[in-house]
């Protein structure tokens, strides 16, 4: 195998410069500004500010509303990750079979990933709106009291399903690639030994897919924490009664609606720390069970 050897450090640094600049502009600088702003108390117009140290953090952590949003985030993120990954794995296993039109099915299953979160939410709104939605009206006509605008549990269920549906295609691509990388000779040998399809899945396929599943677990939790704002905003707006208000949505409420910039920045910093800590825990404990 040929290796590229650089004479000096000028060229490697030059090649890294575009990525370093993008990281500095779109991550390091906004993160630093948020951390600094979380230590300030500002008026809504940004005309004056006062350094208050960690007061914003203590006030946020003492708020019952923030703890409620944290609980909503725990339920929402875990449910989205499990539902999106479980559905994608099932579809990938089915699409990996030798059936007529398999390539067409695979293409159709990838399409939803191209839909923007807000557009995906509007699609589900037209399906499950209690007055104009096809499914929502059918449920009410069938005697099921369906109105996610008034029922918090129904609203949470709807945003979970909508957010998971948006992420299924992404997971499907990786699971299908992982399935196709498993040597067929291994599965054929297990079948010759008398292992049934279910047993082959649990003892051979799933362990060999564990690196892919671990990667997707991290990605799906980050997605549920950050990238689902558009789904929640378009579907429920955090309601009813803050039943679907997650931590990322509460950052928006405090910063944009209430114009409490210090509190909003403190909440964003706390959320960033939580996601980093959660990712570190996954790499520390869950990765041990991954078979590479």
TrEMBL record:
Membrane-related topology note: Multi-pass membrane protein
Entry superkingdom: Bacteria
Protein's UniProt keywords contain Transport: yes
Record InterPro entries: MetI-like (IPR000515), MetI-like_sf (IPR035906), UgpAE/MalFG_permease (IPR050809)
Record localization: Cell inner membrane; Cell membrane
Domain ABC transmembrane type-1: 70-282
PANTHER family named in the record: BLL4140 PROTEIN (PTHR43227), SN-GLYCEROL-3-PHOSPHATE TRANSPORT SYSTEM PERMEASE PROTEIN UGPA (PTHR43227:SF9)
Job of this protein: Part of the ABC transporter complex UgpBAEC involved in sn-glycerol-3-phosphate (G3P) import. Probably responsible for the translocation of the substrate across the membrane.
Protein name per Swiss-Prot or TrEMBL: sn-glycerol-3-phosphate transport system permease protein UgpA
Annotated gene: ugpA
């Amino acid at each position: 195998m040929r290796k590229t050897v650089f004479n000096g450090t000028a060229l490697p640094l030059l090649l890294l410069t575009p990525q370093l600049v993008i990281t500095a502009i779109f991550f390091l600088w906004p993160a630093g500004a948020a951390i600094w702003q979380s230590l300030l108390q500002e008026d809504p117009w940004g005309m004056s500010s006062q350094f208050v140290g960690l007061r914003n953090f203590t006030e946020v952590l003492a708020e019952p509303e923030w703890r409620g949003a944290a609980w909503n985030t725990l339920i929402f993120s875990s449910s989205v990750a499990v539902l999106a990954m479980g559905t994608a794995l099932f579809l990938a296993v089915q699409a990996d079979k030798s059936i007529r039109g398999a390539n067409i099915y695979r293409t159709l299953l990838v399409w939803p990933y191209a839909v923007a979160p807000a557009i995906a939410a509007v699609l589900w709104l037209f399906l499950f709106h209690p007055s104009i939605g096809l499914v929502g009206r059918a449920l009410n006509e069938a005697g099921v009291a369906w109105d996610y605008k008034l029922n918090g549990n129904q609203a949470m269920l709807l945003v979970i399903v909508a957010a998971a549906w948006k992420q299924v295609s992404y997971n499907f691509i990786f699971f299908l690639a992982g399935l196709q990388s498993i040597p067929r000779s291994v599965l054929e040998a297990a079948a010759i030994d008398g292992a049934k399809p279910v047993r082959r899945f649990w003892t051979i396929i799933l362990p060999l897919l564990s690196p892919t599943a671990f990667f997707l677990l991290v990605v799906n939790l980050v997605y549920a924490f950050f990238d689902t704002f558009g789904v929640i905003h378009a579907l429920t707006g955090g309601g009813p009664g803050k039943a679907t208000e997650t931590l990322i949505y509460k950052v928006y409420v405090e910063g944009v609606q209430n114009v409490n910039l210090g509190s909003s920045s403190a909440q964003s910093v706390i959320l960033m720390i939580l996601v980093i800590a959660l990712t570190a825990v996954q790499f520390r404990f869950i990765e041990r069970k991954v078979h590479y």
